[in-house]
Write a structure and sequence with these properties.
0% strand, Cytochrome Bc1 Complex, Chain D, domain 2, globular, 259 residues, mainly alpha
């Protein structure tokens, strides 16, 4: 019975009419066609599943009525990468472009292949325009909600600062080292140049406590910085976020030794 239902759903999805394409489509409209033609739907959903961890990581949710207005709907039934429903509110246009060029350079252990070839013509920029458009009217409230997140006590208790250097080199050094690859390749396009973290920039302020400083770092690591190129690492386990935050607050990357 389940197989029959899935088959019917697939047929309905395949035969429903697509939205008409304008004679002079916008970059967003063209980018949506690139998204479809490149099969992005096979790894990325555009549906935040209600009453799950999705809501905090990728939210807010959209109503089914909103989803049904799409032609065709790009809900997706698989997720090997993050949900993209609100990606335009969570990632800057530059980050999206950098990620399409070389996913592992800016997204740690990403299994996504490079789509740098799309930038040989207009398709790459059109896809970035489409992805940047993916956010709803409730996105600002969701960003405000993420600012209320704090490290769970269990994650703090399980933190292992000795994991900090490994995590930093894997996820952060490409932008936050003076000689980081991403920093060098894209330095002229950043909204604001990333802080060089081996220059003492992680020191706790004189007015704040060490625990508050660690919690603040964890919030940045998990959800990034709104309206900047600093992306979140929403998929990282809280233990890893705690380990990296504690290490940054207590030791952190050291300045390069000069001869």
């Amino acid at each position: 019975m389940t197989a029959v239902v899935l088959l019917v759903a697939l047929v309905v999805y395949r035969v429903q009419p697509s939205a008409p394409v304008a004679a002079s489509p916008t970059a967003v409209e063209r980018g949506r066609l690139v998204y479809i033609s490149e099969g992005c739907i096979h790894c990325h959903s555009q549906y935040v599943r209600p009453n799950t961890a999705d809501v905090l990581m990728w939210g807010p949710i959209e109503s089914l009525d909103e989803l049904h207005q799409q032609r065709p709907p790009l809900i997706g039934n698989r997720r090997q990468g993050p949900d993209l429903t609100q990606v335009g509110a969570r990632r800057s246009a530059l980050w999206l472009k950098m990620h399409l060029f070389d996913p592992r350079q800016v997204s740690g252990s990403s299994i996504m292949p490079s789509y740098a070839f799309l930038f040989r013509d207009q398709r790459g920029n059109d896809l970035v325009a489409y992805l940047s458009s993916l956010h709803g009217p409730n996105a600002p409230q969701h960003i405000a909600d993420t600012q209320q997140w704090h490290l769970p006590p269990a994650a703090i208790a399980a933190a292992n600062p000795t994991d900090g250097p490994r995590l930093y080199n894997h996820y952060c050094a490409t932008c936050h080292n003076a000689d980081g690859r991403t920093r060098i390749e894209w330095q002229s396009e950043f909204i604001e140049s990333p802080a060089i973290l081996n220059a003492g920039t992680m020191a706790v302020s004189s007015t704040g406590s060490q625990s508050a400083h660690i919690d603040h770092l964890a919030q940045i690591i998990k959800f990034g910085v709104p309206n900047s190129d600093m992306a979140g690492h929403e998929y990282l386990p809280d233990k890893d976020i705690a380990s990296l935050s504690v290490w940054l607050a207590q030791d952190g990357p050291q300045p390069a030794q000069t001869e």
